[in-house]
Amino acid sequence: MNTLARLGPTGTVRREQLSDEVAARLRAEIMTGALRPDTFIRLDETAARLGVSITPVREALRTLRGEGMVELEPHRGHRVVPLTRADVEDIFWLQSTIAAELAATATERITDHDIDELVRLNDRFAAAVELRDPDEIARAELAFHWTFNQASGRVKLAWFLLHTARHLPPQVFATDQGWGAGAVAGHAKLIDALRRRDATRSPLSR
């Protein structure tokens, strides 16, 4: 059986990708407060704002409903569920726990080429922070951590961290200059620990 037959019609694949993109956009808006708690997300208004049809918005909201970020109220639509302090603490705890485990493994497995790539990506991130470009900051931050996580060789664990990170996207911090400068320094400290092959020096160590 060929790949297209297994994956289904091209339009279906594209629609799934589009619904994922819409879900990511709405998730980031919820986490950054652009969509306030108890706000109702209207299908037609959201589709028009994002320049898509209603179908991917409906599918995206179904995804977010499964994540507990919105809930469907009969005859009213999807309402943004308020985040509690415990929710945020749980997200940070899970991210830091997985990241520490990946860091311990990456310290043993990472190559000099990988480290050089992290230096390049941190330079890119620092430039974005200097320019105060939140979109590029978010992209550069994701690229840095994705490269680092992949260097651990623990693909499944890196995948879990990526999906956990969706609930705390870089856009949450991207406009905070203090966070940006601290993140650049933290990346540099991590790179130094990796060069020394010393997990205890990593800012991600527990």
UniProtKB/TrEMBL annotation:
Pfam family, one: GntR
Classification via PROSITE patterns: HTH_GNTR (PS50949)
Keyword DNA-binding: yes
HTH gntR-type domain: residues covered: 16-83
Keyword DNA-binding in record: yes
Gene3D superfamilies per the UniProt record, alphabetical: GntR ligand-binding domain-like, Winged helix-like DNA-binding domain superfamily/Winged helix DNA-binding domain
Keywords carried by this UniProt record: DNA-binding, Transcription, Transcription regulation
Source species, domain of life: Bacteria
Gene Ontology MF terms: DNA binding; DNA-binding transcription factor activity
PANTHER family the UniProt entry points to: GLUCONATE OPERON TRANSCRIPTIONAL REPRESSOR (PTHR43537:SF24), TRANSCRIPTIONAL REGULATOR, GNTR FAMILY (PTHR43537)
Annotated protein name in UniProt: GntR family transcriptional regulator
Organism the protein comes from: Mycolicibacterium hippocampi
